[in-house]
Design goal:
Elements lengths: L1 H5 L4 H21 L2 H4 L5 E3 L2 H4 L9 H8 L2 E2 L4 E2 L3 E3 L20 E3 L4 E3 L8 H5 L6 H29 L1 H20 L4 H27 L4 H29 L2 H18 L7 H6 L3 H14 L6 H7 L5 H14 L10 H26 L8 H26 L1 H25 L6 H29 L5 H24 L7 H17 L14 H10 L15 E3 L6 E3 L4
Helix pairs in contact: 2-9, 2-10, 2-11, 7-8, 7-9, 7-20, 8-9, 8-11, 10-11, 10-17, 16-19, 16-20, 16-21, 17-19, 18-19, 18-21
Length: 568
């Protein structure tokens, strides 16, 4: 009632959501920045005399490659991690008499020469994360995703206990500190450690931002405002591609992230705390000040009777007692496996989440392997993602969740397999664009699936188990993200393998989705009895359904996002 009184779409909310959308820009910017900061260019062993263009002005790069690197005719590729074992110090005065390609190869003993046409410097070139150190590149990305997984657990509790803004400030502090540490890392151990820290803060900030945004307006406008904030993520991806294109160094990419995030972190000290969090935690006087301030910005003056009519502040201990009671009644995730029907739903949804995150990040982080320009590919990927999100809004309630989710997985899976097959079997100028088109179709499909699965999961779990169900499914998702970069590395040996596995998992997830009941047009399930009846019969219990009570507060998910039925 209070939010209806001050207005759900006034100047106060507009300024708040501009601030949050700005923060989303830099959160998403850094989430996928590894595409460029950890970009692995072409390379070969460095041979100082032969690489000296003044001593050997007539040597082309191909000549230098053939004089230094063994070619495997059977596998049709060079062994870039070794060189012919002749004495390079005897190569003087532009003479090639020192070259002896009959000698056995030895590991690169003078470092590596990198192709800097795409990126001038990256973490890979700085720490030589190739050959026998290739796993360290994947490890740094895996630690980044591990930081996201830890943040999912830690920052939800922090935001609920110390407040949204304090948790947000802490997340931004960790992000900026980790980013600065990455910029000035002196070795790969320091780099990997700081990647974990910045990921912890970055994703922690994203969790708090989402919860905070959902609490600033009413249920009628919440979807719209959250959608506006997500536009910030699209802008972040475009900015990332632009910065990478014009500066082409990991230093510039990280520096821009720090400078961009700094205003968001500083403004967190002066923006309002979530009034709902203040009310729930019995901070009534502070809540009144915040709500009055929001009202003034919206051109509305609140009186004491407005707060009296809202009932909540009149009995400050009541909410705390109700919330405490709700928390005590929360069930363990073990309850998800009490019945065969619910266990089946859990496993099928976990497979969907695993496939969504695994394939989504696999395609995003592997944009450099798609035929063509990596910068243009990134922009095209973003356009596919944007198109998918718009179509979800237009089609999900019309065609249902199950059919759209299954179809989107299958589109992604077959798109990847076809793209891989075309570029592998017939790699020529005519087929490369066709392969690229199917790769972008795959990105569209998995983005579509990613946009559906969150809402579908909410609708398939009952209220009393929804937070546990979501937590279990997202755990599967974060686990898959950790393994994605290691799989991408396998394309160094088996170019066809990563997309084949990504595609196969998407196809399996697609066909398995047909085993799920559709929830289109249904009210949310409330308890286990309703849920198990629905799982068995694929229809709701009708008049047996327990209707939502007014003014009730439910704990929705692990991030403690509050859905207050009539509190607005």
């Amino acid at each position: 009632m209070l939010f209806e009184r001050i207005g759900a779409m006034g100047l106060s909310q507009f300024l708040s959501f501009i601030y949050l959308a700005y923060g989303k820009v830099w959160i998403v910017y850094h989430t996928i920045s590894a595409l460029f900061t950890n970009y692995s260019p072409d390379y070969r062993c460095k041979i100082p005399p032969i690489d000296h263009t003044q001593l050997y002005p007539n040597l082309t790069e191909l000549d230098s490659l053939n004089y230094t690197t063994k070619y495997d005719a059977e596998q049709q590729k060079y062994d870039f991690c070794s060189r012919y074992g002749y004495n390079t110090s005897s190569c003087v005065n532009g003479s090639l008499s020192c070259v002896d390609t009959s000698l056995p190869t030895i590991p690169c003993d003078r470092g590596y020469k990198y192709n800097t046409s795409v990126m001038k410097s990256t973490a890979v070139t700085k720490y030589d994360l190739i050959c026998d150190r290739l796993f360290l590149n994947s490890l740094s990305t895996a630690m980044f995703f591990l930081g996201m997984a830890v943040a999912s657990i830690v920052f939800g509790n922090l935001a609920d206990n110390i407040g949204r803004l304090k948790a947000l400030i802490l997340g931004q502090f960790l992000f900026i500190a980790g980013s600065v540490g990455s910029i000035f890392s002196v070795n790969v151990t320091m780099y990997i450690t700081t990647r974990f820290i910045l990921s912890l803060g970055n994703h922690g900030s994203e969790i708090v931002l989402t919860v905070y945004a959902s609490e600033l307006t009413t249920s009628k406008t919440r979807t719209l405002f959250l959608g506006v904030i997500n536009v910030g993520g699209i802008i972040g991806q475009l900015i990332l591609s632009g910065v990478a294109y014009f500066w082409r160094t990991d230093f510039a990419l990280l520096l821009v992230a720090v400078l961009g995030a700094a205003p968001f972190a500083i403004l967190a000290f002066i923006v309002n705390e979530s009034p709902r969090w203040l009310l729930v935690n019995n901070k009534t006087d502070q809540a009144k000040k915040v709500i009055k301030r929001m009202g003034r910005l919206n051109g509305v003056t609140l009186k004491d009777e407005d707060f009296d009519n809202a009932k909540i502040p009149c009995e400050p201990n009541k909410i705390g007692q109700e919330m405490e009671g709700k928390r005590l009644k929360r069930k363990s995730f073990i309850a998800l496996f009490k019945t065969r029907e619910m266990s089946k739903i859990v496993l099928l949804l976990s497979l969907n989440w695993f496939a969504c995150i695994f394939v989504y990040y696999g395609i995003t982080l592997n944009a450099g392997a798609i035929s063509g320009d990596i910068f243009l590919n990134t922009v095209l990927n973003v356009s596919m993602e944007t198109t998918a999100y718009v179509l979800i809004i237009l089609t999900m309630d019309r065609f249902g969740r199950r059919k759209l989710l299954a179809s989107s997985h299958l589109i992604a899976g077959f798109g990847l397999v076809v793209s891989m097959t075309i570029t592998l079997i017939h790699p020529n100028e005519g087929t490369i664009p066709v392969g690229k088109i199917f790769a972008f179709i795959a990105k569209f499909g998995i983005s579509f699936a990613f946009g559906i699965v969150y809402q579908y999961t909410n609708e398939l779990f009952p209220t009393e188990l929804r937070s546990n169900g979501l937590g279990l499914c997202t755990t599967a998702a974060r686990t898959s993200a950790i393994f994605a970069p290691f799989l991408i590395d396998l394309q160094q040996m088996f170019r066809w393998l990563p997309n084949t596995i990504f595609g196969a998992i998407a196809i399996i997830a697609g066909f398995s989705t047909f085993l799920l009941p559709d929830t289109v047009g249904m009210n949310l399930l409330e308890n286990e009895e309703e849920a198990n009846y629905f799982y068995k019969n694929w229809r709701s219990m009708g008049n047996k359904r327990v209707e939502e009570k007014k003014s009730a507060i439910y704990v929705v998910n692990e991030t403690f996002e509050m859905n207050e039925a009539e509190l607005q």
